[in-house]
Amino acid sequence: MYRRRKRGMMRGWVAVLGVFVASAVLAQDATKPNEEVTGKGGHFLHYSSTQTNVELGEKDQQTLQRVRDHRYSASLDPALDAAVQTLREQGYETTMVDREFHLVEARHNEVLVSQGREVLRGVLKAKVPLPSKPDHQTTEALILLEPAPDGQGVFARTRFRRTVWDSNGDSRTSVLSDAAIYDQFYGALATHLSR
């Protein structure tokens, strides 16, 4: 009789443990509605990195639509050259200039922590599990120029997209909607066009 009780209690604990593990797994799979996970590095055993794309919310989307476009009284080729020069001055490396379609792509890489801190964190992580921290990021700029609809000047549309990697190698990518970033770029572009 004692063995039957013991087996019954053991089955009960196994069932509770199973429910706990299942709820932990399901809780980890719950992503936010505006996030799309394109790569997954494991639940309990982290065997690969995770890549997450974060979509803009409605308010941020409205802000982006308001700040991404600008108009200049210039022709296409000088505006394209000024856009390339502006990006270079802001630390971007031009990856592509398409003069036929008036398109510029550029990238700016930035380390967020010092090398000493990165090494120290790596040594500590080998011994103690530490939470991940952002350690570097890449901001990509995409600028498209076209003649203004009324034929007077140039219409510019810009998109900045940032990917931040953490100390586990996981990444989060999102389109930037901060008006200050776009205003800074368009202000510097206007300065170049006025020369």
Question: Explain this structure to me?
Answer:
It is a single chain. With 195 residues, the chain is an alpha+beta fold. The chain has helices at residues 2-29, 58-67, 76-89, 115-127, 179-193, and strands at 35-39, 51-54, 69-72, 93-98, 103-111, 134-147, 154-166, 171-175. The protein has two domains: 1-30; 34-193, 2-Layer Sandwich (TATA-Binding Protein). It is built from five helices and eight strands; from the N terminus they run H-E-E-H-E-H-E-E-H-E-E-E-H. Helix 3 crosses helix 5. It is elongated, with a radius of gyration of 25 Å. The N and C termini lie far apart (95 Å).
Sequence of secondary-structure elements: HEEHEHEEHEEEH
CATH fold name of the largest domain: TATA-Binding Protein
Structural class comes to alpha+beta
Q: How many individual β-strands? A: 8
Please state the overall shape, judged from the principal axes of the Cα atoms: elongated
Q: Domains counted in the coordinates: how many?
A: 2
Low-confidence stretches: 21-27
CATH level-1 class of the largest domain: Alpha Beta
Radius of gyration, in angstroms, nearest whole number: 25 Å
* CATH architectural grouping of the largest domain: 2-Layer Sandwich
What is the CATH homologous superfamily assignment of the largest domain? Kinase associated domain 1, KA1
Number of helices: 5
Beta fraction of the residues?
25-35%
Oligomer: single chain
Mean pLDDT reading? 84
**How would a textbook summarize the main sheet?**
8 strands, mixed
N- and C-termini, Cα separation? 95 Å
